[in-house]
Structure formats: C-alpha cells, structure tokens
Amino acid sequence: MDVTNWDIDKYKSEHESEELWKLRKKFLNKHRDKYPETKLLSLAQVFVNIEFLGCRYPNKTMQLVAELSKGMADEYREKRKGKLKRTFAESSCPTIGNVKDVSETPVKVLITDQNISTNSDYQYSCSKHSELIKQPSYEYSEFSKFILYENCNSFGKLQTCPIIILLQSAEKNGFKDSLRFCYSGDSRNSKHEKYCELRFDGKVLSSGTGKSKREAKMNAAIEGLNRLRKTCFTIQEKNVFLSQNLTSIKDGEINTSYPPIPQDNIGSKMMQKMG
Question: Where does the DRBM domain start and stop, copy by copy (predicted)?
Fold first, then answer.
C-alpha cells in the first residue's frame, strides 16, 4: 500500500480557519512523501503554531520547520503585515521569517525564561514576568487537542496534584464526563494490590497500581499526566494580582446606638404583657 495515499482533508478541524488550513494543507501536500503520516501532521501543526500563535520550540525543531516551510507563508505574512495579532499575546511574537528581539513587556506566550538562539535568523528574548505555555514535542496522538491547565489553589500556589490538574483540565476542555478513573473487577485487583485505569472517552490513557485504591489512582494520574504533557499544550496560570504596596482602608465608625422603641409598638406591648 502506498504510504503517501492518505486523505489530508480528514484532518481539517471544524474550528480551523480557512487561512490556517490553507497553510497547513500546503505543508502536508508538499512533504507527504518525506515523513510518516503522524510525524508530518505534528510538523505541520508546529508550522502553523509558529506562524499564527508565535509559539517557540527547541532549536532543532525550529530549524527543521523553517527549512520545510521556506517560502510557504510569504503571501500570508504580506497580507497580515503590520496587523498580525497573536493569540495569548499582549505584544507581537516572532514568526519563522521575521524575528526580532522581544522587549521586556509582559508577554503571555513563551517556553522558558532563557534565550534561544540559532545560527540562522532566529533570536528570541523572553519576558520574565509572563504566563507559561509549555509546548509539547511534535509527537502526535489522539489526545493532542486536549489542553492541560495548571491553576493556582486557594492559597495562591500552583496546583501540583495530578488528579486535580486532570479533572480541572477535563472540565475546562468540556470533557468533564469523558475522563474517568476505573477500577477493574478482574484478577488485577486483589487484596494486597489495587489496579486503576484512567480512561479518556472510553479509551485507556494510563494505568496504575498500589496498595490502596487511592495510591493506584494517584499512580494512574501521574502516568496519564506525563503522557498528555508529551502531546498537549499546558497553560500555566500565574498569580499576577498581588499588590506590592498594600493600602489600609479604615471603615467609617459604626453607630451602635439605636432609637428608642415607641410605647405603642405592638411588639413592645406583647413583651410587657408577657412580663
């Protein structure tokens, strides 16, 4: 069977704009005979992520995608020149072909706080006071469209519990009822060892064992979270609303005196009759 004979159009997302799909399809058609289907899909996604979202990846990945997409986005860049607005960004982020240093203005899209540079035309500087979006590797899977959310807990600290991260992410993705922890009723669950599966939309994402159901559930969550981090974006919430200069506000004086109750008040008369 010809490995290049696969339907590209079936990978168009219903939420994908025509402009984005046009670029991604162009990339897929050009290189469909060079890479396996899953790897090419991942590279194409990286390409449009860079162009449309200003995402950044490891040096080797950026160089490879720049080489494979050379000249593809020229028309798109000219059309959007001076008007490009990045998703998740308060200031412009670099594309493959037009990269300049980014100032210290808070930017919400970045990988790390360290500078990334290559021998080609790419030079990036990242803000130190930004929200963090962890980019997945270009491994593609059926769970790749799932987005992980790492939020702050009630104490303002970043949530680290894998179970809570998974459940909160599922709810924000609209998959609240699709993510379940299941305990098998077969021989894998014994008196001394418990077995738990993490299922996403009925498919087994990961599994874990432990001396108790709680331990097995936690191990399944850890394995599942690690697997999703390889193929899914992670959006990390930062507590940016803390004030450096606290202001003390003094409330007005509270009047504790009350007007006297009239003698003809019904309640007062009833109390007098009751003694």
Answer: 161-230
